[in-house]
From TrEMBL:
Keyword terms: Plasmid
Keyword hit for Nuclease: no
Keyword DNA-binding on entry: no
Full protein name: AAA family ATPase
Residue ranges occupied by any AAA domain in the UniProt entry: 133-323
Recorded superkingdom: Bacteria
Pfam families: AAA_31 (PF13614)
Gene3D superfamilies: P-loop containing nucleotide triphosphate hydrolases
Database matches in InterPro entries: AAA_dom, DNA_Partitioning_ATPase, P-loop_NTPase
Length: 469
């Protein structure tokens, strides 16, 4: 029972008259523009903290300790001897044993050790020749699950491992673009033109058929005409990482969610879900990169559907909470109903035309627990692991002080200078993403290997067929 001395909770005895006095005038639409302008200035200010004076992001250098521990598997003493013996190699900056190397330097040193180093050491990551890049979509329709952070750190992990990476930001909030220091003027510097171009090509094909049949062609507007002049390579920009490129996003990209269904209504036969995948394949992107990472919006809209259809591997981040588990289960349910519905509709038409049926297929799907607090969430995480089974990664991304600090500075953990932390904090902070990368890399290598065996089996069968022919 409450005593008379206990203060009442703050939601009692609120005066309506005084509350009204604190209100501003009713908000009209112009006020949103003012708020947006202030936010844009603030966003620029926050994004540029830690940047170089010219406002551009710079990737820090890596110490001899980091290079030998994390990047090139070689003992520091041997590493120094190799540099001394080969003065044409990057020598790093600094005095004595404390040398610091750019990532460009590290990539050159990798090549040297791969050619001249000990046999059996993995100086460069494995990548089968002649096979396309692996495309990874990071998706969940619940926001705040660590989706962009996971995608960014996977890109950086792969780049530090020596892979050439393309990051495609499909979220109109543009968080990934900010992390990568990208500059995107309007929707014509995003993935939007790639979707428009795919529709334009489909429309051209349809109009050729209509012309041959003496029918009126479907309208072809300026947007579609301009989209035909662009390719994915025109839209991709360099980042402050030498081996990470970016196809960025900004607010106007969201118009794709309205425009795509309009196009689909104009041409019912257009397979809208294939637009992004077609662009990556037709513009040579799958040959130009090793790994492509797609960061998706927190919704199962047309951009996310395109990302999922283009992906070889799907990663689904979620926190170890009931609501996020429940939401992720519904996400999988929506994936099923969406893609099963597309398959059913497409295959009905294909059966009528005597064509082989199509189906969507992914090399692997993994849900990954992010922002994990072992002291409080282990029991719930174990339950989630039990229900999702082989859809789960075995490692859970722990939340460390370093993770939070890197996020506040619009940086990835790998961009943080370990001298700003004690060595143990840095090692633990890195480990949470290193172990995630190890599991994802295992998926990538396994699927590449499986693809290679299938390709070799097909080639052998073709040779046998020609020999018997």
């Amino acid at each position: 029972m409450s005593s008379g001395k206990d203060p009442l909770p703050p939601y009692f005895n609120i005066s309506p008259a005084k509350a009204a006095q604190r209100l501003s005038e009713p908000i009209d639409t112009a006020r949103f523009a003012k708020a947006a302008a202030f936010a844009a200035k603030g966003r620029q200010d926050l994004a540029e903290r830690g940047y170089a004076p010219d406002g551009r992001k710079r990737l820090r250098r890596f110490s001899t300790w980091e290079v030998c521990r994390y990047l090139i598997p070689v003992a520091p003493a041997h590493f120094r001897r190799v540099l001394l013996k080969n003065p044409d190699l990057p020598q790093g900056q600094g005095e004595g044993n404390s040398k610091w190397f750019s990532l460009d330097d590290v990539l050159r040193l990798r090549d040297h050790f791969a050619t001249e180093g000990a046999a059996g050491r993995e100086y460069r990551p494995w990548r089968p020749e002649g096979l396309p890049a692996k495309t990874i979509a990071v998706a969940n329709f619940k926001g705040g699950v660590g989706k962009t952070s996971t995608a960014a750190h996977l890109a950086m992990s792969a780049a530090l491992d020596g892979y050439k990476v393309l990051v495609i930001d499909l979220d109109s909030q543009g968080s990934m673009t900010s992390i990568m220091g990208g500059k995107v003027a309007d929707e014509w510097s995003t993935a939007f033109p790639l979707l428009a171009k795919d529709y334009a090509l489909a429309l051209q094909d349809e109009n050729r058929v209509r012309e041959a049949a003496g029918q009126t062609p479907l309208p072809f507007d300026e947007t579609l005409t301009e989209a035909l002049t662009l390719s994915a390579t025109d839209l991709i920009q360099k980042t402050h990482w030498p081996n990470i490129d970016l196809l960025g996003a900004q607010l106007n990209l969201y118009w794709a969610e309205f425009q795509v269904p309009v196009w689909r209504m104009g041409l019912r036969g257009w397979p809208l879900w294939d637009a992004l995948g077609n662009a990556l394949a037709n513009d040579g992107i799958l040959e130009s990169y090793d790994i492509i990472i797609l960061d998706t919006p927190p919704a199962l809209g047309y951009l996310t559907i395109n990302a999922l259809a283009a992906a070889d591997i799907l990663l689904v981040p979620l926190g170890a909470s009931f609501l996020e588990f429940d939401s992720t289960g519904r996400f999988f349910d929506m994936l099923y109903s969406t893609f099963a519905s597309v398959e059913e509709g497409e295959n009905a038409a294909r059966r009528r035309d005597g064509l082989p049926e199509m189906r969507f297929e992914w090399d692997a799907v993994r849900a990954i627990i992010t922002r994990f607090d072992a002291a409080q969430q282990t029991d719930l995480a174990n339950v989630i692991q039990a229900y999702f089974g082989d859809f789960m990664t075995t490692y859970r991304q722990e939340l460390t002080a370093m993770v939070g600090q890197a996020g506040e500075q619009v940086n990835g953990i790998y961009e943080a200078d370990y001298r700003e932390f004690n060595r143990e904090t840095y090692v633990r902070g890195r480990e949470t993403f290193d172990r995630t990368w190890a599991e994802v890399k295992e998926l990538i290598l396994g699927t590449w290997w499986r693809d290679l065996q299938m390709q070799q089996a097909d080639e052998a069968a073709e040779v046998r067929e020609q020999a018997h022919g």
